[in-house]
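Task 17 of the worksheet. Students: predict the tertiary structure of the chain below and write it out as structure tokens. Keep your answer in the requested format; marks are given for formatting as well as content.
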Amino acid sequence: MKPILFFGEALTDCFYDEHGTLVTSTPGGSPFNTAVGAARLELPAAFCGAIGCDDAADALFKVMREENVDESATVVKLHLPTTKAEVRLNSNGEPSFSFHRE
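Model answer:
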């Protein structure tokens, strides 16, 4: 069976507390997460999208390999960072969201 091709973004989700301290970061992006979910259901899955050439990209590739997601259609953008999504809490605990990409 040919793999289901998931096309779109892969990024790093970064979560900060109300003091601006990074609490956790994790590989993410809806299409990326969906490809991982399909693979966990034992469906053949492939991810097609562009990621940077940095530690965040290494983490994304590690997840793809561990979860058996075909990475052959993934494009590496040399000399560019992987997109980062930031979730920051204000002093009232309300989140704000921003994306950083090149």
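Marker's comment: The chain has a mean pLDDT of 94. Residues 17 and 40 are 31 Å apart (CA to CA).
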